[in-house]
Task: structure prediction
Amino acid sequence: MNEKKAERAENIKKGIYILPNLFTTGSMFAGFYSMVASLNGNFDVAALWIFASAVFDGLDGKVARLTGTTSKFGVEYDSLADLVSFGVTPGLMMYAWALKPFGRLGWLAAFLFVVCGALRLARFNVQVNTVESKRFVGLPIPAAASMVAATVLLFHHFGWPSTYKRLAILVLIYLLAFLMVSGFRYYSFKDPALIKRQPFGFLLLAVVLLIVVAAEPAAMTFGIMLAYVVSGPLGFVVGWPRRRRLEKAVHKGHGAAAGR
Result:
């Protein structure tokens, strides 16, 4: 135990990798500025900065892997930054934007989102070496925060009444909190095949998607995030018959082996 502590201390003394941790710092800066915007009542700006934070968060890991600069320090720093940017920041934004009239129930609901995000990050750190890299177990906290930001932008764009806003965000908080700590699996977009050669039709589809998003960014961003959020439960329902067949086959196999 003492040798491991000494090794960690020695690694920190040798220095840390600057480039990936700068992206992580950029993610936390964007999250913090989003909180500042929320306190000033600029919720549409706050939502945009959450998306900016998500972009930085997506880049830090990729930069670390491409440059061979992954480290235990970077992993821990990234988790702390994620809790600030995608847990505390959207929780504060939701409370100030829609939940404040509910009083204690409002800030408790926002806290539920934060604590479930923290639990999701802790579980990810524990399971990072034991689960499939192409799938996340539970809704990733950046996706949950981005869903909240997309909802804010949608309501701001269409100018819907405050009553609908409060009801929608209350339901959304409980849904996202549950999905973050659930066992539903979500695609991680870490498949190396994504950056390899693809059919021409994929490029055409990507261009069309960009045009549609540019034409109606608020609605399309909300639609894309909603599709990702429901993909976990939908995949579970669609794959249920196959899992049942596999379970029955395993039980039959065990029964046959026991009969021998």
